[in-house]
Amino acid sequence: MQRVILHSDMNNFYASVECLYDPSLRSRPVVVSGDAELRHGIVLAKNYLAKRFGIRTGEALWQARQKCPEAVFVPAHYDRYLHYSALAREIYVSYTDQVEPFGLDECWLDVSGSASLFGSGKQIADDLRSRIRRELGLTVSVGVSFNKVFAKLGSDLKKPDATTVIDRTDYQKKVWELPVGDLLYVGPATAKKLARYGIHTIGQLARTPLELLQVAFGKVGVMLWRFANGQDQSSVSPYYSVPPIKTIGNSTTAPRDLVTDDDVKITLYALGESVAARLRSQRSVCATVQLGVRDNALFFYERQSKLARPTNSCTDIVQEALRLYGRNRPERPVRSLSLRACDLELEDEAPQLSLFPEDSRSQHHMELERTIDRIRTKYGYNSIRRGIMLIDPALDLDAQRDHIIHPIGFLGTL
């Protein structure tokens, strides 16, 4: 049976959802922005009217205002985006149970076995677009192809609210003249390196000797060559499957530069509370702690270290992060920090702790924090807090959600 893969991409997702809540925005350039006062002042998303002025995702808000003074800047409402993302996926799973999310606003669907019920891939894509427009008030662009890579490429070719089919008979005509940067996983750095070899289009990549790409790029070169030649065989994961989680982390840009050790300590404990609570909720422990530091000149580095014993204790994780920070202290004040728990394993599979004092202390920390979880579940997060958070409450990424905490490793585009 020939595979039929769809890739659905919700058009200008964040901005489109904001227009649902305020229809007066539909005729105006809309920019969904971070909080400038908390130094998250960048463009998170924009609608097509804003795009016409050259506004780009990730640029500073002052740059966007210079390009389009009449643009409307609205704050992000992540609860709304999660809600509509879930509603769209409910529609997807009515066609197939093989639905693989790629960020909040994109999904692959394998509809190979659905033709007898719903028609061809194009018919399913058109019906899906119609339902989302009618039931949710949003639009999607859908690519239809025989593999995931070309299906995603198809969803990018025509926007908004369009279906693009790339099949085995015409993919070279439709795909090979496109810039190599349009191919999945070819970022700016890879595209620049490919250009040094005279590779500027997907077709040039496809016709490049595989041996050359393997020498120059290793396994990535082989993967990209296969993508360009339509040889992607990766499957679409079942929607209800739970992928193994390899890391859990959070990062934040502080509302002011972190100058003292106490500033860094407060912020790391705030991040650590979130990371450790998520570990415990999944009955996992980590064996490695990774710290990321960005100074106020935007220089970024990461350091990691193995723990003496696996843990899901905030205290143990943050103490290790502080040791990493002390050994790799930046010369300038810190603008943002990230904290990641790596090398996860199930808590029940963790090695038995010994009777040594340090092992006993770690076990005590884990039991104590599980008790704190129960108290917060019953009486609310603010019912019990760490005293260090009272030193400078502005740095506490608290339960009031005054500060946005960004999960590390989030995929997808806006």
TrEMBL record:
It comes from the Bacteria. It catalyses: DNA(n) + a 2'-deoxyribonucleoside 5'-triphosphate = DNA(n+1) + diphosphate. The keyword Nucleotidyltransferase applies. It is an enzyme of class 2 (transferase). Mg(2+) binds at residues 9, 105. Pfam families: IMS (PF00817), IMS_C (PF11799), IMS_HHH_1 (PF21999). Binds 2 magnesium ions per subunit. The record marks 14 as: Substrate discrimination. The active site is at residue 106. The keyword Metal-binding applies. Its cofactor is Mg(2+). Keywords: Cytoplasm, DNA damage, DNA repair, DNA replication, DNA-binding, DNA-directed DNA polymerase, Magnesium, Metal-binding, Mutator protein, Nucleotidyltransferase, Transferase. Residues 5-187 form the UmuC domain. Its EC number is 2.7.7.7. InterPro entries: DNA/RNA_pol_sf, DNA_pol_Y-fam_lit_finger_sf, DNA_pol_Y-fam_little_finger, DNA_polymerase-Y, DNApol_IV, IMS_HHH_1, Rev_trsase/Diguanyl_cyclase, UmuC. One of its GO terms (biological process) is DNA-templated DNA replication. It is found in: Cytoplasm. Poorly processive, error-prone DNA polymerase involved in untargeted mutagenesis. Copies undamaged DNA at stalled replication forks, which arise in vivo from mismatched or misaligned primer ends. These misaligned primers can be extended by PolIV. Exhibits no 3'-5' exonuclease (proofreading) activity. May be involved in translesional synthesis, in conjunction with the beta clamp from PolIII. Monomer. PANTHER family: DNA REPAIR POLYMERASE UMUC / TRANSFERASE FAMILY MEMBER, DNA REPAIR PROTEIN HOMOLOG YOBH. This is DNA polymerase IV. It comes from Oscillibacter hominis.
